[in-house]
Structure formats: structure tokens, C-alpha cells
Amino acid sequence: MGLGLRSKWDRLNRYGYLRRTEDYRAAFLRAKPLLTYIGWLGYRNVGDEALYLAFRDELFRDALLLPHDDFSALSCLSGFANERLIILGGGTLINVDPYLSALEKFRARDERYVVWGTGVADLDYWSRHPEHSDRGNSGRWLSILRDARYIGVRGPRSAAWLTENGINGVEVIGDPALSIRPAPRKAQTGTSVLGINLGSHDPVSGGGEGVFDSVISLTRHALRQGFKVQYFALHAIDAEIGRALKAAVPSDGFELLPFNASVDETMHQLAGFDYVVGQRLHATILACAQGVPNLSLSYQPKCLDFLESIGQPELALPTEEITSVGLIERFDWLVQSGTVVRNAIVSECDRFRNLQRANASALLARHKLLILQGVTP
Predict the structure, then answer these.
(1) CA angle, 263 then 269 then 274, to 5°
(2) What DSSP assignment string belongs to 217-273?
(3) 193-336 sits in which CATH class?
(4) Which pLDDT tens digit goes with each residue over 167-214?
């Protein structure tokens, strides 16, 4: 099989689980406007799946949402350029080459595109990791962003970088995964539960060994304090780390929860926690969406970008500074401040949910009006 055919076959299989009967019906009847989604998807990473589902099931339910590189009968049925809107979706995508290339192709065809809840990759951080050569090209990024119909970003750090580089009208709308619906809170059993997550696709500032050793100490501390500890994974990488953590802390009070890359299952797991200590960015974001007080093992600047967006930078423990003593002290503070932290998180997450839904409705209404008026891109 040639490289081109293999790529199309991979995409046909990768996105198969996202295609629903109702989507084929909408595409055939031209019943909904088409939104083409640019983002990292189809790799069994719960955070990125949550972003896509937030767009499809919560923010843009009245549109047909498809990945930009989907190759299927559904994509063939769904129509062509002048009836669709391109969305650079959630994730830290700005200053990352593959997403730039995709946007440039759409601009070359004079298609409309917007930025929605996207983060800006911190180039100072990535300059310390030259093996990741696909970060950069900021000049090309700024050029293409000047032609965007709307720019809403994850947090204040992303907005500041764009503004400082001459992009006007940037709005902070929060991470789109905040719009995932919380699961029903599980009944209290009298024993507090700490949820722990470790894992990353990206380099960890300060290295991973110090983080792992500190979490071992925290787990033992929580068990001594009478907590039940449950480990949850957002990717297979996390699940492997969880098995290593379980081997280091062999206790009946420490449980590894099953991982199946399901957003719904993850939200139900989070609903059973009283507190969370998580490394992956979306362990933090989804815990906040669920209203669970949490600490972020902030392994790169994007974690701080989110926490600052909800006014909670004190929930960050930068991994290059982490120690066992420091992590335990911050966890004890979180337990003592749990109600205050929970109320603050819920308030800010509700604010962003309302903002995202209002902006999504307005954006879709404008797009539908342009279609009715026959306005070309």
C-alpha cells in the first residue's frame, strides 16, 4: 500500500468511532452547517477527546463537526468550502507546525477560519527541547492569525503573547473542555478519596523522577491520614506509570482505576474524588469542570496558562521545583482550604461555560447568516 493510501486508510479507521448515524443524515440532508475541526484527535488521549466532544455535543450541537483530515463517506457527503467554517480547536496548537500547515491550506482556498479556546505553545520552553523541531515559525503563525475571523484563546499567557506580537481583538474564553458536563457526584462513604494522575507526551520541566518520587511520598502520606487513593489515567502512558506507582506503594488502600480512553468514564471517576493531584493538563481541567479541588503538577507553561485563566495560580506546583515535603504541605493546605477552592473553581468554570456557549451561539448564527446571504469567504 502506497504512503498516500496508507495515510487515508489510517484516517478512515482513526476517526471511525466519531462518525454517528445522525451525522450521515445531517450531511445527506444538508441540515446543519459544517464545521471543520483542526486539533489532535484519534489517539486515545482523553483530554483531546474531551475537547472534541465539548465542541460537538455542547458548544456546536446545531452544526456538523468533522476533523479536518477525515477521509470517509461522511466527509464526502458533508459539502465543500464555501459552506463551512474552519475551527482551530482546543489544545496547545499555535506555534506547532502541523496545525499551521493545515490552516495555510485553508487560507490558500480563501476559506473562513476562527481560533477557539486554543493555547499558544511557549517558545522559551520549547527552545530547551530542540529535539521537538516542529515548534516555532511564529512569523507564519502571526500572518495567518491576522486573517482569522475570531480569536479566542485558553488563557492570559496565550492572549498576552498574541497581543504583544500585534494580534488585536484576542479574547480569553478558557479551555473548551470546561464545557464537558459534570458527572453526578457519587455518594459519600465517610472516607475521603484522593485521585492521582501522572503522565505527559511532552518533556517534563525538571525531569520526571523527582515528580514520581514526590508522588510516592504523597501517596504514603495520604494513606496514613486515612485517605483512599485512586489512580486515574488519561492515556496509556499514564496507565503504565500508575502500575509503577502501585508497585512502589503496595497497599490495599491504593487502587488503579481502569483506563479505556472514555471521556464519560473519566468524568465518572472524577466524580468519586474529593481531591485530585494531577500532572496532565486535562487532569486539572476536567477536575475543575467536575468541581473537584485539585493541585497541578505543572510540567510546562500551558498548565499555568489555564490556572491563571481561572484565577487559581496557587494550585500549581512547577515540576522543576517539586519536593516531597513541598507537595505534602501543599496537599494538606488543599484539604484545609477545600471548600473555598471548590467554590472558586466552580464559579470561574461556570463563567467560562456561559461565555463559551454564548460565543458559540453567536458565531454559529453569523455563519448561518452568511450562508443564507450567499456571501463567499
Answers:
(1) 135
(2) HHHHHHHHTT-EEEE--SSHHHHHHHHHHHHHS--TTEEEPP----HHHHHHHHTT-
(3) alpha beta
(4) 999 999 999 999 999 999 887 778 999 999 999 999 999 998 999 999
Taking a C-beta distance cutoff of 8 angstroms, is the pair 78, 105 a contact? Answer: no
3-state secondary structure of 111: coil
Which helix or strand (DSSP H or E) is residue 372 part of?
A: helix 338-373
Three-state DSSP class for residue 114: strand
Return the CATH architecture of domain 3-180+351-373: 3-Layer(aba) Sandwich (3.40)
- Continuous segment of H or E residues that includes residue 281: helix 281-290
Write the CA distances from 22 to 50, 54, 65, 300, integer angstroms. 20, 17, 12, 39
Grid cell in block for residue 91: 489544545
What lies within 8 Å, CB to CB, of 1 at 6+ separation is 9
Single-letter code of the amino acid located at 66? L
Report the run of H or E that residue 25 belongs to, with start and end: helix 21-29
Q: State CA 53 to chain mean position distance.
A: 11
